[in-house]
Amino acid sequence: MKRFLLLCVSMLLAVGIIAGCSSNNKESSSSDAGGNSDSGSSDEVVTLNFFQFKVEIADQLQEMLKEFEAEHPNIKVKLETVGGGADYGAALKAKFASGEKPDIFNNGGFNELELWKEHLADLSNEPWVNHLLPIGKVPMTDADGNLYGMPVNLEGYGFAYNKDLFEQAGITEVPTTMSELQEAVDKLEENGITAFAAGYGEWWVIGQHLLNIPFAQQDDPAAFIEGLSEGTETFVGNKHFEEFKQVIDTEIGYGNTNPLTTDYNTQVTLFASGEAAMIQQGNWTENMIYQINPDMNMAFLPIPLNDEAEANAIPVGVPNNWAINKNSENLEEAKLLLDWMVSSETGQRYMIEEFAFIPAFDNIEPAGLGALGESILEYSVAEQTIPWTWFMWPDGANQDFAAAIQEYVAGQIEYEEVLEKFQATWDNLK
Amino acid sequence: MKYTKKTFVLEIIAICIAIVFLVPFYFVIVNSLKGFSEILIDAAALPSEWLFSNYVRVWEILDFPRAFFNSLVITVFSNIGLVVISSMAAWKMVRTPGKFSKILFILFVSAMVIPFQTVMIPLVKLGGMLGIMNSIPGIIIMYFGFGVPLSLFLYHGFVKTVPIEVEESARIDGCSQFGLFWRIVFPLLKPITVTVIILNTLWIWNDYLLPLLVLQDASLRTIPLATSSFFAQYTKQWDMGLAALVLGITPVIIFFLFLQKHIIRGIASGSIK
Amino acid sequence: MESTVATKVKADTKLKIGSTRKLKLKKLLSYAAFVGPALLFFIVIQIIPFLMGIYYSFTSWNGISSSIEWVGLENYKRIFSNDQRFFDSFLFTTKFMFAAVLISNIIGFSFALILNTALKTRNLLRTAFFIPNVIGGLLLGFIWQFIFVRGFAAIGELTNISFFLKPWLGDATTAFWGIVIVFAWQISGYMMVIYIAALQGVDTSLLEAAKIDGANAFTTLRKIIIPLILPAFTICFFLTISMAFKIFDLNLSLTGGGPFNSTQSVAINIYQEAFTNNNYGIGSAKSILFFLIVAIFTTIQVMITKKKEVEA
């Protein structure tokens, strides 16, 4: 028995030594490379690892990086895109745990910034910061005022509406308050048009985007969120959260059948094929809508909670940011790449033409936007925007919130209980 | 057995069930030949225009030959290793009854219920230390570790049905332990070996999470990794995704058709009861 | 191991002490040579990470930070005092396990029986029933989601059968059965292969003898076939139980745990705790608890079926 154990242990050791040796070799060779680049030989090629999750732009991004490589012969960029069913966060954590840390990767900001801050490089003094719009700075700025990331783009959402169907129902004024919206949906119903394509099967549509409205409409959303955590604010009894009920009731009452099984694809298809007049979605749906119906005539209207003037605002925010690993061996090259993406002509061209992004920089003129992107831009220019607050919520709360809303829509619980569930989730996860 | 009226009725019923069983594949194949918007608008209908261009594009985007090669190498070598180490261990454990073997067996079996999510972060941490990350031999070693419990469990169950008399006569003939195992015992294990290979192949060929965590180089991508690039959180590119899926599963179907002959032959040879 | 060798040695008292030592060593070496490789890979790849997981379950690690703080039993206390969702997911997984194991084994065994007769198309049918296995978990869920949402609706509109008009994934009960259906659809072919292998090992002369004795098909099945292939049942039940308990990919892509978390499996709960809520410590603690419970469950199952095997 003892001998057997001994044998096992020695075998383990042997493997450990073999593996250890090979990993040592690897390390020493890579440190050699580092040494060479230190000695300043200009033909030394460094490789940047670029890890991101926006599958939609993966091909164009690869094209752009090729152009970057052509302009910078001593920098190679290895792009890896992980999206889909896999959790980008889990993959990124695995990379850091195994030591294969990427140089550039995505970070959502706020709570996620705090979580990752010890690994992130301070970008406060980068050349592009001067041109960054104030709204783009918020997510990645910490309490000391340092900036840790560059916004990928700006996005916004609301009720996108089909202008032709509205006209058909005789709606001439774009509804901007709850009462006007109510009138509009009544008119749509009289004309036999389904008002909403409600995608209540997707947790992020309701638990994140829709529920953001009552958060963002608070006088000071950040203070409200802090108050929730400290116990000075509650969901029950809060004016905007009480008003929120009517939004759900309207959307469900005048919406498609089976909202709880309507996923993102179904929801967008209903809207794009003209089977519903409105959809609660963002400008990222644009391409898909045009693919189904190239002649779609559409724009955004706000998701109003009440009849006050403030209700007429669209949530605009930074969906994600690029951040740099501060322990990267090629920190300078990584910074150079980020700067090139928003300062060079090529980088800017990709941003507006190929990715069709709404840029978060004042020195890049948006072009090539579709109707929804244009609509977001109009609201931004008119300063009728409210923030995206879910990055400040406790991790995982959004999926619980969605579950509570689904339960309400399924008729399992009353609205009062929904607010109680929100509260319980918050208290449990904060 | 004779072919009677009853068998005929049974056959008709079985065929009907099989058709119902295969309906999802109708959806997969039909939609893989449609344009994106057509899939969204009417999923059930036949394509208005048969778009084989989906397949051509997917072949290029995925770099299919390379992904196929990677998947193949990983699957084949993991299988060989698993069959060798698990059959040997299982046989020895069955033939050496006692407390130690029993405890060992329970240890192996209970590990089958460890959820992969539990060990994945420590595993990549350890993998980084051992220098087996981001390499095909590395992931094969990991499959050895993850596959051993099930393979060993299946062999363990099967070895017990192999009569020990055969081995004893061989032992008298002066066979060494290895010779005895590989020449006499292993051929008798063929039916279960085929089963083990089928089950491990299905798992390894389709596995997503482990390659995702371990293989980072684009040149090392397996088929499921490459396919997943068509499915984002917001947009699922069904046209490309389904074509990729069909490309990815075809080799496994061919493989299964090939092996199932062996299952039947292995059993029909009557070497075991 | 030691005790086995010892008893064998005792039985052979005539051997001199020196040669017993030698024999013992030889046996040990041969045992190590055969079992060692499997054990080595298993320990390095599964056991060491698992032990590391146990360590993390006593910390408040978030999965990212380089500082790992020891918190003792705090995580376990928190799970037991304040995590209804975890227990709900347990309840769901257990219910799912019973339904899924029963249904997929009944279907798999029936298929095996049917295909073990002299059907002309049996090779083709065998392939047809087996083929669902070639689609991996995540994509399988996506495809079936598509079928439940679109396919069923299309059939429902055509036929007006209420079965197809239900919001399958939008209601807690039907979503539960939806997952069971997909699980059974995929796994029963797999079980069928194992059962077929076992059935073909049954001596046909026994069956013919039973026929001559006037036993009907059902009696033959119950009294002869099932007892003979009990080991196959042990394997199949064990496999389906552990697969059903660990269900993750399929569940995630089919319902994502919804509607309103009613179909959240334990594996998803753990995954979310660790990677969405960034509580790797609590996630690890949950998976240790999960492991213990599943281990107890499967041990009981194996003990029961093994006992039956012996009796038979």
Descriptive notes:
Chain A is of the alpha/beta class and 430 residues long. Helix content of chain A is 48%, strand content 11%. Chain A has helices at 2-38, 58-71, 88-98, 111-116, 134-137, 163-168, 178-190, 203-216, 221-230, 239-253, 264-272, 286-292, 331-343, 345-354, 371-381, 397-409, 415-429; strands spanning 46-52, 75-81, 104-107, 150-151, 155-162, 196-197, 278-282, 298-301, 314-317, 321-324, 385-386. In chain A, strands 5, 6, 7, 8, 9 and 11 form a six-stranded mixed beta sheet that branches. In chain A, strands 2-1-3-10-4 form a five-stranded mixed beta sheet. The longest helix of chain A has 37 residues, at 2-38. The model of chain A is unreliable at 1-41 (pLDDT under 50). With 273 residues, chain B is mostly helical. Helices cover 77% and strands 0% of the residues of chain B. Chain B has helices at 5-32, 36-41, 53-62, 64-95, 99-111, 116-130, 136-159, 164-172, 177-188, 190-206, 209-214, 223-228, 238-268. The longest helix of chain B is centred in the N-terminal third of the chain and has 32 residues, at 64-95. Chain B is globular and about 70 Å long. Chain B starts with a helix and ends in a 5-residue tail after the last helix. Residues 266-273 of chain B have low confidence and may be disordered. Chain C is mainly α and 312 residues long. In chain C, 77% of the residues lie in helices and 0% in strands. Chain C has 14 helices and no strands. Chain C has helices spanning 2-11, 17-56, 74-81, 84-115, 122-130, 137-159, 162-165, 172-200, 204-212, 217-228, 230-245, 249-254, 266-276, 280-311. In chain C, helix 4 runs parallel beside helix 8 and helix 13 (266-276) packs antiparallel against helix 14. The interface between B and C is large, with 102 and 96 residues. Chain C: One of its GO terms (biological process) is transmembrane transport. Chain C: It is found in: Cell membrane. Chain C: The chain crosses the membrane at residues 28-56, 96-118, 130-155, 175-198, 224-245, 287-304.
